[in-house]
């Protein structure tokens, strides 16, 4: 077996991140005494799930024998596994020099690379890896890679990126340079528009987040972050332990926008320093997976798009700070590494056109291409400059890709299967891309927006939340709605509930930290339309009722399924109930993807679902479900009735699950589940909420600020309230690096409250009658 060097000090011998290179099938994997162990190969890791650890905490044991694994050039074995907090890894190996073993230290909020000293061994003949957790609950982990390291050579390897200072003598103007604070290319904003934004916003509280992130950027020394890779924002899922907490991306554009808005010389030059630091990183990649010899793994151009977008924006807004050499170095990285990788992704991965991913990278592609149009050819020598830049045809291809993506990703009824966060991110990217292309071609952006976007007004009303703590319902992989996306949609559709969502968000959380939406604000109405009492989206499979209870609103949202959607949860048949500004049944959406809780939040047991009851394994439906599962119903401003046959996808578990919601008046909601199971102990009704919940004299009470919900536990049904792991406070520092998460999302508690009601048998009817009482 050949080990694969990834630098002068380290090598990999087990590539679990690459499904084509992974040798998981050569390992014996078990966990005696644990319940529900599953290993599931995925696109960048092997997912490890368990329902309950063994009595001693064991959740995974892996064993493999080798004829001879050559480790003669290294002194440590390294294991990289993403694990829940306080988990431990123990390693043992048989080598030509005898047995080697080590008990690792407990994991913290971020993954550490556990190690085993080789102590002179030249060959490894077998390896055993054991994972233990102290928490007697379900959990999840990611197997990433196993490798070898020579500890004395690591400092020499890392020293390659030391020694940069803030002067950048041949690349940037000196600090005493006097700028005009006018944009160089006028692609995001021209000088006149920037002056208008200054007049309207610079002295107000609305851009407080931009001021905040600008000051965060000012406090960071960009040169200290020059490294082998540039890393994907604050995402710690893949990066090396030595790179945890380092984030070179995002800060430069914030500094550039804040610098030109408030005419701050230091911030403008600081932004330019971030750009120079970015282009001095070896790889515009998140991790060695993407450039390891022999691997075809890639990250769809995402990380390259960050490099291109950030450098293009800084050149556009603060270009006067660069010397010709500094500018050309940036343009070279944009041309070769940036556009090369993003073009490859657009050719290679067809699914990107059916999801958020093509539009994800499109603003970077367009921004970079338009900057290159302004500057290419860089050299004409003795020949005339062409009338049109030779980059222009590539810009047209990129714009066509944007249109194709949206026509394929949006449904005929204006729905979008990936939820609020991904859609508002898509909207932000569509808005940014459209406004850039319109500026580059001197056209009206409203006339360029693909027609499918205009159909999303109904989607806005469907997911518009009446909970005063959030802007939109957080279905699927959603943690918050993206402020800049809401602004663009409200500007585009001024008579829609995108206006309702945007104005609520602006009042609740302030403006997003981007200049472009500020330019649009004056054209957005101050108030959206009235809610429709009953709304359905038959293509998407969503349904909702919004009615008045006194002076308060009651919203009941039902979750159906469009066959085969991405970023889905096991939540078909779930519901969300809002009343008087609170969520009485709540969807917790998602958290940072590097947090192992992310996988748990996808599970049906974390939603307002009926599931089979099993003591030996976790019942779950297919995800995604390859057939439509959609509610049917009707309603008006007084009553609402709906039913859904949610049996599909539960093959091997439910033979029948039909859920009905009857609400003759806004304060009464009767939920009836008719069920039958193929195996297991019976059925379990899960109800989750952020609000205080208790069982008192067999009556469930959920307490809101201006209302409460009550219902009796049915006879013969066991009920218990549990606190499930949610957000460990030790992870807060990582979340804080994504300021928009703090600005627009929830500050989650350590635990997720869940009511569990169990009904024994092979079939049955479980019914609850929920009463909403205003205080």
Can you characterise this structure?
By secondary structure, the protein is an alpha+beta fold. The chain folds into three domains: 4-158, Sandwich (Jelly Rolls); 168-380 and 387-523, Glycosyltransferase; 534-774, Beta-galactosidase, Chain A, domain 5 (Distorted Sandwich). 27% of the residues lie in helices and 25% in strands. The strands form five sheets. The protein has an eight-stranded antiparallel β-sheet, with no helix packed on it. Strands 1, 2, 4, 5, 7, 10 and 12 form a seven-stranded antiparallel β-sheet that branches. It has a five-stranded antiparallel β-sheet with strand order 3-6-11-8-9, with no helix packed on it. Strand 4 (38-41) and strand 5 (46-50) form a beta hairpin. Helix 4 packs antiparallel against helix 5 (265-279), helix 5 (265-279) packs antiparallel against helix 6 and helix 13 runs antiparallel to helix 14. The radius of gyration is 27 Å and the shape is globular. The model has no long low-confidence stretch (mean pLDDT 95).
